[in-house]
Amino acid sequence: MALHFTSEQRLDDGVLERAFTLGGIPGILWTPASAPAPMPLILLGNTPLGLDKMYPRLAARARQAAADGFAAATIELPGSGKRPRWAAAEQARADLRRTLEAGEPVSDEIIDALTIPLVDAAVPEWQSTLDALLSLPEIGGPVGYSGGVISIGVRLAAVEPRIVAAAFFAGSFVPRATFEEARGITIPLHVLLQWDDESNDRRAALDLFDAFGSKEKSLHANMGGHTGVPQSAGDAVAQFFTRHLK
């Protein structure tokens, strides 16, 4: 698949932001105003909320990456944003909402239906995106992954040898299959956990961290809810990638 840039703009700090499509998949690439080429790349994990809603947070992380000399990129997940609706995903989300509103525990069946098809579809798209981005003259690696959905990040890190370090954001439901995949991951890991995250199973997040096979892994827990991540946590992620991508 060929990558086609559809628009570009210079942000106020000089970062070049370019929208692109790759076989119908929308995405955004950010590159520093000045950095030696070819430069390292950080893949920014998106969420089913979609690029439009996530843009402020994604752009802030990308600008931090650019300040550190890295390119950053993200893509729209299957069934999200302006991409075609995905009936199975819509049904799984509806089942999850009904369960949470009823105050009932979320079953493995709902978690699997919500997550596994999304992981199966999204990871090959991320790999195709990585192929296309690394063909650009300004990008040469090494490559890191940062963000959620955590099950997508785990699968991608497990199957993609070009990713040499990952920062995972706990805060989504984790199927049992992801725990098995986590045992095979050996790259350096930085895991961010909001202790009072209303949408996160804290016990599952801790168990997943324990399952990772990496010798170098660190868990960074902060008080507060899902959107209350402190600036210091973002700074720690930036320092992690500076250590491992430069």
Helix/strand-derived class?
alpha/beta
- Put simply, the count of helices is 7
CATH architecture: 3-Layer(aba) Sandwich
Helix-strand pattern: EEEEHEHHEHEHEHEH
By CATH, the topology is Rossmann fold
Round the mean pLDDT to the nearest integer and report it: 91
The 3D shape can be described as: globular
Helix content: 40-55%
Task: Give a written overview of the molecule.
- This protein is of the alpha/beta class.
- The protein has a single domain, classed as Rossmann fold, CATH 3.40.50.1820.
- Helices cover 41% and strands 25% of the residues.
- The protein has 7 helices and 9 strands; from the N terminus they run ββββαβααβαβαβαβα.
- The chain has helices spanning 51-67, 87-101, 108-134, 150-159, 176-182, 202-211, 231-245; strands at residues 3-10, 16-22, 25-31, 39-45, 71-75, 139-147, 163-169, 189-194, 217-222.
- A 9-stranded mixed β-sheet has the order 1-2-3-5-4-6-7-8-9, sandwiched between helices.
- α2 crosses α3 (108-134).
- The longest helix has 27 residues, at 108-134.
- The two termini are 29 Å apart.
- The mean pLDDT is 91.
In a nutshell, what does this entry contain?
With 246 residues, the chain is an alpha/beta fold. Helices cover 41% and strands 25% of the residues.
Outline the secondary-structure elements.
Layout: E1 3-10, E2 16-22, E3 25-31, E4 39-45, H1 51-67, E5 71-75, H2 87-101, H3 108-134, E6 139-147, H4 150-159, E7 163-169, H5 176-182, E8 189-194, H6 202-211, E9 217-222, H7 231-245
Parallel strand pairs: 4-5, 4-6, 6-7, 7-8, 8-9
Antiparallel strand pairs: 1-2, 2-3, 3-5
Helix pairs in contact: 2-3, 3-4, 5-6
